[in-house]
TrEMBL record:
Residue ranges constituting the Histidine kinase domain according to the UniProt record: 246-463
Name listed for the protein in its UniProt record: histidine kinase
Reaction catalysed by this enzyme: ATP + protein L-histidine = ADP + protein N-phospho-L-histidine
MF terms in GO: phosphorelay sensor kinase activity
Keywords: Kinase, Membrane, Phosphoprotein, Transferase, Transmembrane, Transmembrane helix, Two-component regulatory system
Length: 489
C-alpha cells in the first residue's frame, strides 16, 4: 500500500511525465542514428555494386562477351569467400560464368533491378545460407548479368544496432523510472514532514513548528512561511484568550450577581404578575450564563487541543451512567428509551469531557424527539474504534445542513422554536477532536416526514491485550500481593 500511495503522488507523476518526454527524445535520437548508419551502409554497398557494374561494362565494350566471361571467372577465382556475387546467362538461362548456378526467384526483383535474396541451394549455393543484394540488367546480345554483394555481415550489424537500441531504450526507461521514484520519494518525505507536523498542530500542539533543512530551497521557504503564519495565528489566539479571560472576569461575575438579585427579588415579590416577569428575567439570565459558559469552555477546549488529562475510560460504563441520569427525562415525554452496551469498550480520554459530550447528545435526542418517540443509545467496538451512537425518531437535520450544525450558534430551521443556543454540537465536536475522534450524522429513517437523526461518534479504542500480556500482568499483581502480605505479617 505504501508503494501504491507513492505512485499516486504528484511528484512521481511529474517525474513519470519527464521520463516519457526524456525517453521519447532518446528514442528519436537513436532512431535517427540508426537510420543514418543503416542507410549509409546500404548506400555504400549499392555504390560498390554500381562501381563493379561500371567496370564490367567497360570490359564488355573492350573485350566483348568473351572478355566479360574471362573477367568474371578471374574475379570469382580471386574471391574464395564469395563476397561478390556474379551470374551471366543467355536469354534462355544457360549459365556462361559466375558463382551462382541459377537465377533467384523473380519474386525478389524490383522495378529498379535491385533484388534482395538468400544464398542457398535454390540458386546453386554450396556454402551456408547468407543474405545477398544484387542488381540485374540486360547485356547486348540477349545476355543477362547479375552483380551483387554478400550483405549477411551488414544485416547482422543492423541487428546488433537494433538490439543495442532496444537495450538502450530499456535501460533508459528503467533508470528514468528509478530516478523518478527516488526523486518523488525524496519530495514526498519532505511533504510528509509538513503534513504530519500540520496534523499534530491541528490536534492542538500549537507550539510545534515545521522543521527546515537550512538549504533555503522551496520547501524551506514554504516551511518558514507556514511557521510565520502559525506564529501569527498563535498570537491572535492568545489575544482572543486574553479577551475571553477579561470577559469572564468582568462580565460573568456581574451577570451572576444580577441573576442572584433577581432570584432574591423573586422570593420577596408578592404580586403574581410581577413574580412571573421576574421569573422570566431569571430564566433569561440563566440562559445567558449557560451560553457564556459554553462559549468559554469551547474556546478553552480548542486552545488546549488534545493535551487533556487522558486516562483509560470504560466508555460503556460512562454512557450507562449518563443514560441513568437522562432516562427519567425521557419517561416524562413517554419516550421509549433503549440501551445496548458492549462491555469492555475502553478508550484513553478525559472522563469529564466525554461525559459532557455523551450528555449533550442524549439531551438533544430527548429534546428534539416528540412524545412516544424512540431513542436508542449504543456502545460497541468496531475494529480499532470505540463507537458511541445515539439514534432518535425526531425532526432530524436536512442533508445540506449536516456539515453546518457544528458551527457556533448555528441552529436548524426546524429547531429554532425550541430552547437552546446552538452551541451543544460545537462543544461535542470539540471534545471529539480532542480525543482524535470523528462524528457522522445520518438519517435514522431516510425519506420519512420524521427522518430522525443518528449521531455516531468514532474514537480510537485501546488496543486489546494479548493473553500473554494479561498473564504477565496477573503474575505481577499476584507477586506484589504476596510481597505485601509477607510484609504485613
Amino acid at each position: 500500500m505504501k508503494l501504491l500511495s507513492q505512485l499516486r503522488t504528484s511528484s512521481f507523476q511529474l517525474a513519470l511525465l519527464y521520463m516519457v518526454v526524456f525517453a521519447t527524445s532518446v528514442f528519436i535520437l537513436l532512431a535517427f542514428i540508426y537510420w543514418r548508419t543503416a542507410g549509409f551502409m546500404t548506400a555504400q554497398t549499392d555504390e560498390t555494386i554500381e562501381a563493379e557494374i561500371a567496370g564490367l561494362a567497360e570490359q564488355y565494350r573492350s573485350g566483348g562477351v568473351n572478355g566479360l566471361i574471362t573477367i568474371l571467372r578471374e574475379r570469382v577465382a580471386r574471391d574464395p569467400n564469395a563476397k561478390s556475387i556474379y551470374l551471366l546467362t543467355t536469354d534462355d538461362s544457360v549459365k556462361l560464368a559466375g558463382n551462382l548456378e541459377t537465377w533467384p526467384g523473380e519474386s525478389h526483383s524490383s522495378e529498379t533491378g535491385w533484388i534482395n535474396f538468400t544464398l542457398d541451394e535454390s540458386v546453386g549455393w554450396n556454402g551456408p545460407e547468407r543474405l545477398a543484394r544484387a542488381r540485374i540488367f540486360e547485356v547486348q546480345g540477349g545476355l543477362r548479368l547479375l552483380v551483387g554483394r554478400d550483405v549477411d555481415d551488414l544485416t547482422n550489424l543492423k541487428k546488433v544496432i537494433e538490439a543495442a537500441i532496444n537495450w538502450g531504450m530499456g535501460i533508459t526507461l528503467a533508470l528514468a523510472l528509478l530516478g523518478g521514484f527516488l526523486m518523488s520519494r525524496s519530495t514526498t518525505r519532505r511533504i510528509e514532514v509538513i503534513n504530519s507536523t500540520s496534523r499534530r498542530i491541528m490536534n492542538g500542539h500549537l507550539s510545534l513548528r515545521i522543521p527546515t533543512r537550512g538549504t533555503d530551497d522551496d520547501f524551506d521557504q514554504l516551511a518558514d512561511n507556514l511557521n510565520r503564519m502559525l506564529d501569527r495565528i498563535v498570537y491572535l489566539m492568545e489575544g482572543i484568550r486574553h479577551v475571553s479571560d477579561n470577559i469572564a472576569h468582568d462580565l460573568r461575575t456581574p451577570l451572576t450577581r444580577l441573576r442572584n438579585q433577581l432570584e432574591n427579588t423573586l422570593i420577596t415579590v408578592d404580586d403574581d404578575e410581577a413574580r412571573e416577569h421576574v421569573g422570566r428575567a431569571v430564566a433569561e439570565a440563566d440562559q445567558l450564563l449557560a451560553t457564556f459558559n459554553a462559549l468559554l469552555r469551547i474556546a478553552r477546549l480548542e486552545t488546549r487541543g488534545n493535551t487533556a488529562d487522558m486516562k483509560p475510560v470504560a466508555l460503556d460504563e460512562l454512557v450507562a451512567d449518563a443514560c441513568e441520569l437522562y432516562e427519567a427525562l425521557s419517561e416524562e415525554k413517554d419516550q421509549e428509551f433503549r440501551q445496548s452496551m458492549q462491555p469492555g469498550v475502553v478508550i484513553d480520554g478525559d472522563r469529564d469531557l466525554l461525559f459532557q459530550m455523551v450528555s449533550n447528545l442524549i439531551d438533544n435526542a430527548i429534546k428534539y424527539t416528540p412524545e412516544q418517540g424512540v431513542i436508542e443509545v449504543n456502545v460497541r467496538r468496531d475494529n480499532a474504534d470505540a463507537v458511541f451512537e445515539v439514534r432518535d425518531s425526531g425532526i432530524g437535520i436536512p442533508d445540506d445542513e449536516k456539515d453546518q450544525v457544528f458551527q457556533r450558534f448555528y441552529r436548524v430551521g426546524k429547531s429554532r422554536s425550541l430552547p437552546g443556543n446552538g452551541l451543544g454540537l460545537s462543544l461535542v465536536n470539540a471534545v471529539a477532536e480532542i480525543h482524535q475522534g470523528r462524528i457522522v450524522l445520518t438519517d435514522t429513517y431516510p425519506g420519512d416526514d420524521m427522518p430522525g437523526l443518528t449521531t455516531t461518534v468514532y474514537i480510537p479504542a485501546q488496543r486489546r491485550k494479548s493473553k500473554r500480556q494479561k498473564a504477565i500482568e496477573n503474575n505481577t499483581v499476584d507477586g506484589a500481593s504476596e510481597n505485601g502480605d509477607s510484609r504485613d505479617q
